[in-house]
Amino acid sequence: MQRFLNFAWLRWIPCFVICLIQGVHGQDFRDRETDFPNAGVQAQSRYLPPIQPTPSQFRLGIQSRNTATGVVILRVVPGSVAQRIGLEAGDTILTVSGYQVGMVEGRIYDVGDEISRRMNRQGSATLLVLNNRNGQLVNIPVETDVAPDAAVLGTVMTNDRQSVFPSMMLDLRIIDVTHPQWRDVTIAESQLAVTGRWPMSFRLDYDPTVVRPNHRYAIEAQISYLGQVIQRTASPVPVNLAGASPRVALKLDSVQSLPGQPFPGGGAGGGSGLPVDQVDGWYLQFLGRNLTDRERSVWQRELSRGKPLDEILGTILGSSEYHERFRGNQRAYIADVFQSLYGRTPTPQEIQRWQTRLAQLRDDRFKMVREMQRESGR
């Protein structure tokens, strides 16, 4: 079904006229990842660990809620692009250059992602917005201020010339190593499927506007298979981002093989007793699906960096994907989270208490879930 058909309930004739003028397109059937939404500081729009934006990603500067009729703005970040173009809390973004955003036939079409996709050669896109103040529909142009292209080019080689198997993923990231305590300050990050033979070539794009003079940068890489890190750089490799298209050659050392079987063996790693398998169980329980290879790799990496399992559970329970399963019924959502954490059905008073608390937290579901976890001991 075409994405504009979800607006049939609108009684405003101007919406139909404007959509016809814009030429609202049919649903974009390309494979879309919704695990890394990019719209500025959108509240609860991601359920994987945050990654730094790449040049193709756009910061609109809003906290929002995805609905079947558009993206409802909850808060506008001061000094952001959204504030400069006149967006306010309560406004609803319906389309980006004619493409619907929000929940469309059960899938999230993130507004920031759509702006990045739909920008023209001049670096601009058009938002169709339902103005909360007067109920009018208005077209608002937005300039994306796309940064100049910059990239690190390089090759990756494993010391033991590890064979290449399906589902192998290569994670790359550029980090600021000016000070030791800045170990996790990421400038750019990417994940690629491992294919072909060694050495493997790569291109890692980054935003040159975030590079600071007199700072030192390095690149690190790792290879994961079925959620486990099996190869990684022994230490970050220095890279000079002041030059044009710097080149690096990375060598990876073996970390481990799959437990209980020779690498890379068969099966999906289920039943290995690894923490990431617990995460996979939560995905199945709360989201109704298993981890993708990409998600499994990212969570395994975060676990190896010391992220607690209870925080991952909180991220899943506070995610948009889980929340959208209740179709906007906040009480049902809170009751289900409560049941999962406390092991019992909440009373109406308890539901009201957490509903009030969520409003106080400005719809920050992750914060609410973390508070419930602390109180319940989960």
Note the topology.
Elements: H1 13-22, E1 62-67, E2 70-76, H2 81-84, E3 92-96, E4 99-100, E5 102-104, E6 107-109, H3 111-118, E7 124-130, E8 137-143, E9 151-158, E10 168-176, E11 186-193, E12 200-205, E13 217-225, E14 228-232, E15 237-239, E16 247-254, H4 275-287, H5 293-304, H6 309-317, H7 320-324, H8 330-342, H9 348-360, H10 365-376
Strand fraction equals 25-35%
Largest sheet: 8 strands, mixed
Number of DSSP strand runs: 16
Q: Low-confidence parts lasting 5 or more residues at pLDDT below 50? A: 4-56, 257-273
Helix/strand structural class: alpha+beta
Number of helices: 10
**What form results from the Cα inertia axes?**
globular
Helix and strand run:
HEEHEEEEHEEEEEEEEEEHHHHHHH
Describe this protein's structure:
- This protein is an alpha+beta fold.
- Strands 9, 10, 11, 12, 13, 14, 15 and 16 form an eight-stranded mixed sheet that branches. Strands 1, 2, 3, 4, 7 and 8 form a six-stranded antiparallel sheet that branches.
- It is globular and about 60 Å long.
- Strand 1 and strand 2 form a beta hairpin.
